[in-house]
């Protein structure tokens, strides 16, 4: 079982590398752009969806295959190839030697960190991780929770955040801020119910445990 430590990292103006040019690479590029990272992308073909940020200089694009030297100076590397285990293993060993953070998509065994299923509403981020044990369950949790954190929640969150800043500005002492900040969220509550597959413990699990010859 993979044991991980949850952390948020500041990538503002930090060098990050994306290897690949498919849908996952595009998604990671957009996430890193939002984080303010300085992005390099290596792939023989330029992703059409990233044409504008590449042309605007927000992403440095190298139209070729990956070279080990591409990782020099990088704090974080995203390997978006999940069908090349030999490549991922070699890249993982390189990460251990050079000390950069590495995520190999859907390959926690070849990663020094894993990506949580992420719900984002403005500055609020809710990460859901199974520590690589069940990414599909993490994804389902994300999909269901996203419905709860709707447009109204986004508006409420922005109101709480802006009101908090006003309270801080008007009260120099922390002890005078606390009552007002707590009042902002008075009455807010998240509630829900978990529904499990019917008979999962008797029917589903034994079937999954059976080998291919059964």
Instruction: Report the CATH architecture of one domain.
Output: 3-Layer(aba) Sandwich
- Fraction of residues in β-strands: 5-15%
Helical run tally: 7
Helix content: 40-55%
Instruction: Write the CATH homologous superfamily of one domain.
Output: NAD(P)-binding Rossmann-like Domain
Please give the alpha-carbon distance between the first and last residues. Answer: 26 Å
The CATH class of one domain turns out to be Alpha Beta
Q: Structural class of the helix and strand makeup?
A: alpha/beta
Strand order of the largest sheet: 3-2-1-4-5
Q: Report mean pLDDT, rounded to a whole number.
A: 90
What is the 3D form? globular
* Rg (CA only): 22 Å
Main sheet? 5 strands, parallel
Beta-strand segment tally: 7
Fill in the CATH topology of one domain: Rossmann fold
Write the H/E string, N to C: EHEHEEHEEEHHHH
């Amino acid at each position: 079982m993979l044991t991980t430590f949850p952390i948020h990292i500041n990538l503002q103006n930090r060098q990050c590398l994306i290897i690949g040019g498919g849908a996952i690479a595009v998604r990671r590029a957009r996430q890193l752009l939002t984080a303010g990272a300085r992005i390099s992308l290596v792939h023989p073909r330029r992703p059409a969806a990233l044409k504008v940020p590449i042309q605007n200089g927000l992403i440095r694009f190298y139209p070729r295959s990956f070279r080990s030297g591409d990782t020099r100076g990088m704090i974080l590397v995203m390997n978006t190839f999940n069908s090349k285990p030999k490549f991922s293993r070699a890249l993982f060993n390189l990460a251990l030697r050079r000390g950069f953070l590495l995520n190999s998509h859907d390959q926690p065994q070849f990663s020094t960190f894993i990506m949580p299923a992420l719900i984002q509403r403005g500055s609020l981020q809710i990460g859901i991780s199974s520590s690589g044990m069940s990414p599909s369950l993490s994804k389902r949790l994300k999909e269901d929770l996203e419905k709860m954190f709707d447009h109204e929640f986004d508006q409420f969150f922005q109101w709480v955040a802006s009101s908090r800043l006003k309270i801080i500005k008007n009260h120099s002492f922390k002890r005078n801020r606390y009552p007002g900040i707590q009042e902002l969220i008075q009455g807010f509550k998240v509630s829900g119910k978990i529904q499990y597959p019917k008979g999962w413990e008797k029917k589903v699990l034994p079937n999954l445990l059976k080998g291919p010859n059964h």
